[in-house]
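User: Let's play a game. I give you a shape written as tokens, and you guess the letters that built it. Ready? Here's round one.
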């Protein structure tokens, strides 16, 4: 008897997702709790596990379809049972048995390197990868996948196509046809004209659509304004250099810059609580805690997991939490709960080389701090021009709630704490 596979709960307020990819095809053996499909929601990607061990019997939706929480998307049969949706080869075999074919025709030789991709349709390929296979005429079964669980990526296909075009082509051995059947000349693909330009249309992922909607909503709703300052990173760099080995030995994690900035934000938010507040209708909601959303780059877009009660955390706890989020983002295992809530956001564009930017707030939050790259610049100290490792800071805020004086005061408090980390210890 077949077992239904249903879409699991995807997180608070999330009622549907997009079936991004089937990880198992009909007829394949499936272990209990083994992922059979990947779903994409507004916030994260979720793998759907099989509730039982058996055989993939039926797929009820196609890749790209929208599925609701609780919907049955597949059925798992008993181990060894035939799949409900038989492969095309099985159907052809039945037709051949009931309708015997005429005299056999001698097959014509063909170039396996240009065989249609349908010959390898049994591989689990994403739409983008399948399109690349068709365009470049490569055999996906002979390509080593570098994606999760060895799956093929578009880059894998492009690399294989480049290697095929750049190196010698080894034709497969083809048996000579019967003397009575003259081999037909294989069609030669027309060479692409020099300087040809191409376009590719790819449907936006659900995550990218959500990011676009929320950022535009912030611009349309909030009265956005950004204030800037720069900070001398000398003291923090010296502190890291002095204690990084002891810190890593004791806590098992590296001491990064983000821990200093999270602690500095917590200190500044006590003096300027409106930066850590939000507007709800005609009311202002103040928080006596600081949940920091940390912008992290994931394979499918920017995500913002939340460090909860960051104001009560130690440096080690902050760094461990951030490192955990980074690993989960890379592996695609962040959950909706990881990104729920948040009262303030820190975005570090400096890791990508950004010198200066104006970040957009993450609704319903009212402010976001943008960090940027550190570079030596000439500054005046005690009447002397000296080189110092400087970083530009940007605070974007909702002017409906936060006045300019409050925004500037907050950013100056952050600057003071970073330039003199002792303030973080004695709460100044």
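Assistant: Ready! My guess for every position:
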């Amino acid at each position: 008897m077949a077992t239904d596979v249903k879409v699991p709960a995807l997180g608070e307020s999330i009622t549907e997702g997009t079936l991004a990819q089937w990880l198992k095809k009909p007829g394949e053996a499936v272990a209990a709790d083994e992922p059979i499909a990947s779903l994409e929601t507004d916030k994260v990607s979720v793998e759907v596990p099989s509730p039982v061990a058996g055989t993939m019997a039926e797929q009820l939706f196609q890749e790209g379809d929208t599925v609701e929480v609780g919907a049955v998307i597949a059925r798992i049969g008993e181990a060894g049972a035939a799949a409900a949706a038989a492969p095309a080869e099985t159907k052809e075999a039945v037709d051949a048995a009931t309708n015997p074919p005429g005299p056999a025709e001698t097959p014509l030789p063909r170039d396996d390197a240009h065989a249609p991709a349908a010959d390898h349709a049994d591989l689990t390929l994403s739409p983008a990868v399948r399109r690349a296979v068709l365009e470049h005429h490569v055999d996906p079964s002979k390509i080593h996948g570098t994606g999760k669980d060895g799956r093929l990526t578009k880059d894998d296909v492009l690399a294989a196509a480049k290697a095929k075009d750049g190196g010698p082509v080894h034709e497969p051995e083809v048996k000579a046809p019967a003397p009575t059947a003259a081999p037909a000349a294989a069609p030669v693909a027309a060479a692409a004209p020099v300087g040809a330009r191409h376009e590719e249309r790819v449907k936006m992922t659900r995550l990218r659509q959500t990011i676009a909607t929320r950022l535009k909503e912030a611009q349309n709703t909030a009265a956005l304004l950004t204030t800037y300052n720069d900070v001398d990173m000398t003291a923090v760099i010296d502190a890291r250099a002095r204690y990084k080995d002891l810190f890593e030995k004791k806590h098992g994690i590296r001491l990064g810059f983000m821990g200093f900035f999270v602690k500095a934000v917590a200190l500044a938010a006590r003096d300027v609580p409106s930066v850590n507040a939000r507007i709800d209708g005609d009311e202002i909601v103040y928080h006596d805690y600081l949940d920091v959303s940390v912008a992290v780059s994931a394979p499918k877009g920017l995500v913002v997991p939340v460090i909860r009660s960051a104001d009560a955390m130690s440096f080690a706890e902050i760094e461990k939490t951030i490192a955990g989020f980074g690993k989960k983002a890379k592996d695609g295992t962040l959950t909706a709960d990881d990104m729920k809530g948040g009262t303030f956001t820190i975005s570090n564009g400096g890791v990508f080389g950004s010198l200066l930017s104006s970040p957009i707030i993450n609704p319903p939050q009212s402010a976001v701090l943008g960090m940027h790259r550190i570079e030596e610049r000439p500054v005046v100290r005690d009447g002397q021009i000296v080189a110092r490792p400087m970083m530009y800071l940007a605070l974007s805020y909702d002017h409906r709630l936060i006045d300019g004086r409050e925004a500037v005061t907050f950013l100056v408090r952050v600057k003071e704490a970073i330039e003199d980390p002792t303030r973080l210890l004695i709460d100044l």
